[in-house]
């Protein structure tokens, strides 16, 4: 009895180091962000129209970040591997889309009756090619390392990333006449997309209703990027949730060995995950090129880092989590760029990520040992 009482007393005196460390981290970041946060809130209240514009920009950026993040979360959900080459697949998608724009000779003067179907065709071709590229990467670089240590496929993914980045650099040297000079004269410099999406303010008519002080701007290209991105995300979610192939992907994500015993072709299912992720990255490459107007061979690193962060934030391996994480990263980045400074954006994004992961180590929608896909 005395021994049991002593153990109970010792257990009661155990110092909760985990919670102390969590509280310490939160206090550090709160003190780090408190002073600028007060100024930010004051600016938001003083100019709500500027806030609305930044929210629109954040939502637009978050939509395509979610598309790229989907590739990370699909692959990790099934094979528990971080495909660090995924950002470069997105870059290849942007370069391919730009090349097709040059081949089809689309310019600002091209009538919308021709421009719209051509852009849809470019979207389909780009998604198909980047999907096949991602499948080829899985087949040649990752499949044979599937049963190796976790470090081997990780190093292989980094190697593939460098190969694709240099392929993008070499792509900048292409000067075929059929491309109508779309790649410019400098291989290293950013490539310019023609302005093919409407940039008119959709809300301009509301000025007559609310007066001249109404200055919220919603460009046509903002709406197009959001509609296309959200449509693709919803289509992917429904595919995974309501089709037999999607059910096979979810079963493989839960237990690969059991899925194989039940007759599921695991190799085909894993290839399907890479195919879908590559298609989403290709679509994002086209949308970002048309929206921002530029593409450069190093664009995959930054976008890949943000998208991987979004996947982790939402709960890597969780489809809805990747969507939520992408939107949050886009909104946080847009607000930080406007109200703080672009040079502080990465610090703010990762600071918030650390705070969330301290209390939710599996991400906002992630579940320990739960269904991933």
Account of the protein in words:
With 373 residues, the protein is mostly helical. The protein has a single domain (62-359), classed as ABC transporter involved in vitamin B12 uptake, BtuC (Orthogonal Bundle), CATH 1.10.3470. 71% of the residues lie in helices and 1% in strands. It has 14 helices and two strands; from the N terminus they run H-H-H-H-H-H-E-H-H-H-H-H-E-H-H-H. The protein has helices at 2-12, 17-46, 48-79, 86-103, 112-142, 151-171, 207-210, 220-242, 244-254, 256-261, 266-292, 299-314, 319-339, 345-359; strands at 191-192, 294-295. It has a two-stranded antiparallel ribbon with strand order 1-2. Helix 2 packs across helix 14, helix 4 (86-103) packs parallel to helix 6 and helix 12 packs across helix 13 (319-339). The N and C termini lie far apart (50 Å). The mean pLDDT is 86.
Main attributes of the structure:
373 residues, mainly alpha, ABC transporter involved in vitamin B12 uptake, BtuC, 71% helix, globular
Tally the structural domains: 1
What distance separates the N and C termini?
Answer: 50 Å
User: Helix content range of the residues, please?
Assistant: over 70%
Choose one word for the global shape: globular
SS strand fraction: under 5%
Which regions have little confidence, pLDDT < 50, spanning 5+ residues?
none
Secondary structure tally, helices: 14
């Amino acid at each position: 009895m005395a021994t049991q009482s002593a153990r109970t007393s010792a257990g009661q005196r155990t110092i909760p180091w985990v919670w102390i460390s969590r509280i310490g981290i939160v206090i550090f970041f709160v003190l780090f962000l408190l002073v600028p946060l007060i100024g930010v809130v004051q600016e938001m209240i003083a100019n709500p129209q500027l806030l609305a514009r930044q929210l629109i920009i954040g939502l637009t950026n978050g939509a395509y970040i979610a598309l790229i993040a989907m590739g990370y979360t699909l692959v990790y959900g099934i094979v528990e591997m971080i495909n660090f080459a995924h950002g470069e697949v997105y870059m290849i998608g942007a370069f391919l889309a730009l090349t097709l724009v040059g081949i089809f000779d689309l310019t600002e003067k091209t009538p919308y009756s021709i421009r719209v179907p051509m852009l849809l065709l470019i979207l389909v071709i780009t998604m198909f090619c980047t999907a096949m590229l991602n499948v080829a990467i899985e087949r040649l670089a990752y499949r044979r390392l599937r049963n190796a240590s976790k470090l081997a496929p990780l190093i292989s993914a980094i190697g593939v990333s460098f190969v694709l980045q240099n392929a993008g650099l070499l792509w900048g040297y292409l000067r075929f006449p059929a491309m109508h000079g779309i790649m410019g004269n400098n291989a290293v410099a950013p490539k310019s997309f023609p302005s093919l999406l409407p940039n008119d303010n959709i809300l301009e008519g509301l000025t007559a209703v609310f007066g001249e002080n109404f200055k919220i701007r919603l460009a046509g290209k903002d709406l197009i990027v959001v509609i296309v991105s959200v449509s693709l995300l919803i289509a992917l979610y429904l595919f995974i949730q309501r089709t037999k192939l999607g059910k096979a992907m979810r079963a493989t994500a839960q237990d690969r060995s059991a899925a194989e015993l039940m007759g599921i072709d695991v190799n085909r299912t894993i290839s399907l995950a890479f195919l879908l992720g590559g298609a989403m990255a290709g679509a994002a490459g086209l949308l970002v090129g048309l929206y921002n107007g530029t593409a450069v061979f190093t664009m995959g690193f930054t976008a890949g880092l943000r998208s991987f962060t979004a996947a982790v934030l939402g709960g890597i391996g969780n489809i809805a989590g990747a969507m939520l994480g992408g939107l949050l990263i886009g909104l946080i980045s847009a607000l930080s760029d406007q109200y703080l400074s672009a040079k502080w954006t990465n610090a703010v994004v990762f600071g918030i990520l650390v705070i969330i992961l301290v209390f939710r180590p599996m991400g906002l929608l992630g579940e320990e040992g739960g269904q991933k896909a």
